[in-house]
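Lab meeting, item 3. Inverse folding demo.
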């Protein structure tokens, strides 16, 4: 394959060709106009002069090629992540401008490449999160839906089923439907947090009464369980009542789910903690259980799709408080928060 010449070779070949052409024309012209003169001597002097000129041109072109090679190295530096030299001396203003413009282009290209890499990484993480979300949702919905379908099919196929058993199956269907509704409510609430649409509605209320109401509602579901309260007669709190009720229900229900003994709620003027004697959480998992969609196979601890404690953490964070967790495997857990500092708020109820 034909190899293209270097800049020096290309220009030098043309300059030599022009010089030879000039010598030939000069020789012909001199032989016609001045036939009696020393043409050979004149042509020799002309040849020497042109040779000197060609050599000077060669040096200039070689220097020019050196500068172009230096600029070309800047292009190579775009791929090897080294910094281009912006202090290189150039003998003409045009090359100096080309060098500076090239460096600026390289910087912008690197920034675009870096931004693209970051975007691709975020996109990859988002896609993975989306897959995790779908897997978590499918996992959570599969059991209650299967139960509803199974009990419904039995009721449809067996018309002679005994009334007590029929009532039991209908109760199972109702319980699983309620579970699906709770999952959907948590998903919607989590989506509000993720989109930044959630706003606190601050008011004053009795924390002890709110805790008692939450326990009463949960004991309809956990009828055989006992939840004891250790607290003063009245605890005033300034926060979003609805959000704090969600926090209390999540913490108390987690304690009921993952323990068999009595659950205790301790309240004082500065903090509230839910204490159980259940399965506990390993030290390596404590920081992870508040992450959304986090699940682990230990003791079937799946944290209701990983949203319950994540929602609790976000609600407390909006108030300027922090979820505190103390736990030991097979000895129990202690979940709660300190509300001694004033709650942050965006909009206060009258």
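The presenter then showed the designed sequence:
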């Amino acid at each position: 394959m034909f190899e293209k010449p270097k800049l020096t070779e290309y220009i030098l070949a043309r300059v030599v060709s022009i010089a030879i052409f000039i010598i030939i024309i000069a020789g012909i012209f001199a032989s016609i106009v001045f036939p009696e003169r020393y043409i050979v001597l004149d042509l020799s002097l002309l040849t020497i002069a042109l040779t000197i000129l060609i050599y000077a041109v060669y040096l200039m072109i070689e220097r020019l090629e050196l500068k172009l090679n230096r600029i070309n190295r800047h292009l190579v530096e775009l791929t090897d992540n080294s910094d281009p030299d912006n202090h290189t001396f150039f003998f003409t203003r045009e090359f100096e401008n080309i060098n500076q413009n090239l460096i600026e282009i390289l910087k912008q290209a690197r920034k675009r490449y870096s931004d693209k890499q970051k975007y691709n990484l975020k996109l990859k993480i988002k896609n993975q999160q989306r897959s995790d979300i779908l897997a978590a949702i499918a996992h959570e919905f599969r059991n209650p839906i299967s139960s509803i379908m199974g009990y419904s099919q039995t009721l449809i196929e067996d018309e002679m089923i005994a009334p007590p058993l029929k009532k039991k199956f209908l109760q199972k269907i109702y319980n699983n439907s309620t579970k699906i509704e709770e999952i959907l409510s948590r998903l919607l609430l989590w989506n509000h947090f993720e989109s930044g649409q959630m706003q606190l509605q601050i008011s004053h209320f009795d924390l002890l009464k709110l805790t008692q109401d939450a326990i009463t509602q949960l004991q309809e579901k956990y009828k055989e369980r006992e939840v004891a309260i250790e607290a003063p007669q009245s605890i005033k709190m300034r926060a979003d009542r609805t959000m704090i009720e969600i926090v209390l229900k999540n913490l108390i229900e987690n304690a009921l789910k993952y323990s068999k003994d009595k659950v205790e709620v301790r309240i004082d003027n500065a903090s509230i903690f839910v204490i159980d004697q259940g399965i506990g959480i390993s030290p390596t998992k404590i920081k992870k259980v508040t992450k959304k969609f986090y699940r682990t196979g230990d003791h079937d601890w799946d944290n209701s799709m990983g949203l319950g404690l994540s929602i609790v953490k976000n609600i407390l964070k909006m108030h300027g408080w922090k979820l505190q967790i103390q736990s030991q495997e097979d000895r129990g857990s202690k979940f709660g928060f300190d509300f001694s500092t004033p709650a942050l708020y965006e909009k206060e109820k009258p």
